[in-house]
UniProtKB/TrEMBL annotation:
Region (Disordered): 1-30
Record-level GO BP terms: transmembrane transport
Statement: the UniProt record of this protein carries the keyword Transport: yes
Organism: Actinoplanes digitatis
Membrane topology according to the record: Multi-pass membrane protein
Taxonomy of the source species: Bacteria, Bacillati, Actinomycetota, Actinomycetes, Micromonosporales
Protein's name in the database: N,N'-diacetylchitobiose transport system permease protein
Amino acid sequence: MSVVESPPARPASQAPAPGDGRARGRRRSATSGGYAPLALTLPALLLLAGLLGYPLVRMVVLSFQSLGLRQLFGDLPPDNVGFANYVKIFTTDTFYQVVARTIAFTVVSVVLTVVLGLAVALLMRRVAPSVRIAMIIAMMFVWAMPQLVATQIFRWLVDSDFGVLNYLIDLLPGVDFANHSWFADPIQGWIVITTIVVWAGIPFIAITLNAGLTQVPKELLEAATVDGASAWQTLRLITVPILKPLLIIVTTLSVIWNFGLFTQVYVVRNGRPEDEYQVLATWAYSIAFKNNNYGLGSAIAVVTVLLLLGVMAFYLRQMFKIGDVD
């Protein structure tokens, strides 16, 4: 009688489960995605490249050329001037004045917009639901109003001859605001322009931060109140840190939007902004289409895009960080 020794059994922990390879393949496919997402997004990417990429490339090419009306409507080819347009920009004092004015306006308008938007969002959390809905509807109307229409309305309000604002201020005892021109003084003129931009920007900030405030735990706020924390301490030590990622996103977006200010200045100055009201966007437009120097105007536009690239990179970095956390 012989004894047949059976091979040692494989530990259960090391034994491959039926279909384990297929499961790993499915998990790898779900995480990596393969080529399917790229294939699905390719049409949209090609459309965006055609709509946004071509004008950008064309603008960069024009910035290295001398292109005027003769070359635009005649048969003359544009002259390649290399970096001459950029040298002309960086060697004029006007460029630095316009850049400083654009940055100053952006800083002031963004700070005012974010602070007032946060205040409105906090107010929305304290009012009754019906009032909150009414506030959201009112701000949606403001948000949906075209910039051209809103700017024209503000222009009528501050008109020197028929403006309602001058009439109301003139009613104050000892104040003479009859036929007062708000744009004769650049400081007063920029106050009007900044008011228009801030008024239009508050709804986006307030509605977005109101949604973010719903994520602040009520238990945390109640515990802070029980511990004797004031409203300012609760806002500074609890609410703002929780809203910090959202605040960074809306602030960065506001910087990008306000840095490209054009419509408000162009409308209130009747399409002819004086030197005191020029910002980078209006300056590039005036040089290109008023002076018919399209090459130099394109160079100013390219410099504007380059100045914004840092802000755009910061915005994308924040978006990817939020995506990683999610």
